[in-house]
Amino acid sequence: MTAIGFIGAGRVATQHAAAIEAAGGVIGAVYDLDVLRARTFAAEHGGVVAGTLDDLLAADVELVLVLSPAATHMEHALAAVSAGKHVLVEKPVSWDAEEIVRLDVAARAAGVVCVPGHNSIYLPEVERIHRVLVRGDLGSPVALQISETYRMPDELARRYRGPLEEVLIHHVYTALYLLGRPDEVVAMAASPLETLPVDPQHLAVIARWDATGTLAQLYQSWAGDDHTAAPRTHRVNLLGTAGGVTFSRRDVVGELEPGGNPTTPLYQELFDNQAHHLLVRQLGNGEPALSTMADAADAASVIAAVRESLHSGRAVRPEYVGAAS
Predict the structure, then answer these.
(1) What is the pTM of this model?
(2) Which of 62, 124, 191, 273 is the most buried (most CB within 10 A)?
(3) Across 173-191, average pLDDT
(4) Residue by residue, what is the 3-state secondary structure of the chain?
(5) Is pLDDT above 80 for 221?
(6) Class of 3-118 per CATH?
């Protein structure tokens, strides 16, 4: 049974804890700068409370989940790798592609697994989209749409930096998983709501792949709910010259949340399937990750191009670091 150390005991740690337990792992230790939060987490999910980062890395854990704020991801991941631990780093690993490549090099030198928390692609429906595309069932890819739109409550939005920093990365790494590196991106953004305390509040990115002529639309919004017959929360749609395939997290819904949106049980499955893949299929059976640190570096490069496009108003070709994965 794999023992796991948690760096960070915040909101997302609850989803990871449930996923680890479902995959047969146990929580061995938890560290958080907020000691009370770490103690509360340990009381609910198990494990000892580590007083320092060094204490956590000295604990009897095989795998470390880096769930701390994004600005500390690299520091914590490199420390865990240096301690000989396997590592999963929540998204974004970093906004600096070169930093991510250095982490990848360090993990390979240490002989440990180090993967990004790119959990959206671990749903079986998204794996199927990838599988039928690679198998040639869809012909050549023509168009990809990935969208997620909902009205983020103002109070909750104050805890985050906005959809560009918090959510668009999911669309980008999913596009990379399905189609590889885009050659060019152009982005537009807006903030139509006076009370929503983030900027931008929604944005659309168009990406192009030169070799196939494929276009992708990546849309993310916190500005409005979608209660239409085919809601864009959360949808992936891929069309090829010989067919198409689609998936929505709304395929499975539960009780309504305040505001009228249904709960989506598949959200927890993102974490469950990622944990199962890492613990059972990858560490247990030697299978490769679905998304690698090279993909995380590419995602950072694409996001950098998106930011440049928003600033300049022009199409931008991402500057990738290292060879394509």
Answers:
(1) 0.96
(2) 273
(3) 98
(4) CCEEEEECCCHHHHHHHHHHHHCCCEEEEEECCCHHHHHHHHHHHCCEECCCHHHHHHCCCCEEEECCCHHHHHHHHHHHHHCCCEEEEECCCCCCHHHHHHHHHHHHHHCCCEEEECHHHHCHHHHHHHHHHHHCCCCCEEEEEEEEECECCHHHHCCCCCHHHHCHHHHHHHHHHHHCCCCEEEEEEECCCCCCCCCCCEEEEEEEECCCCEEEEEEEECECCCCCCCCCEEEEEEEECCEEEEEEHHHCCCCECCCCCECCCHHHHHHHHHHHHHHHHHCCCCCCCCCCHHHHHHHHHHHHHHHHHHHHCCCECCCCCCCCC
(5) yes
(6) alpha beta
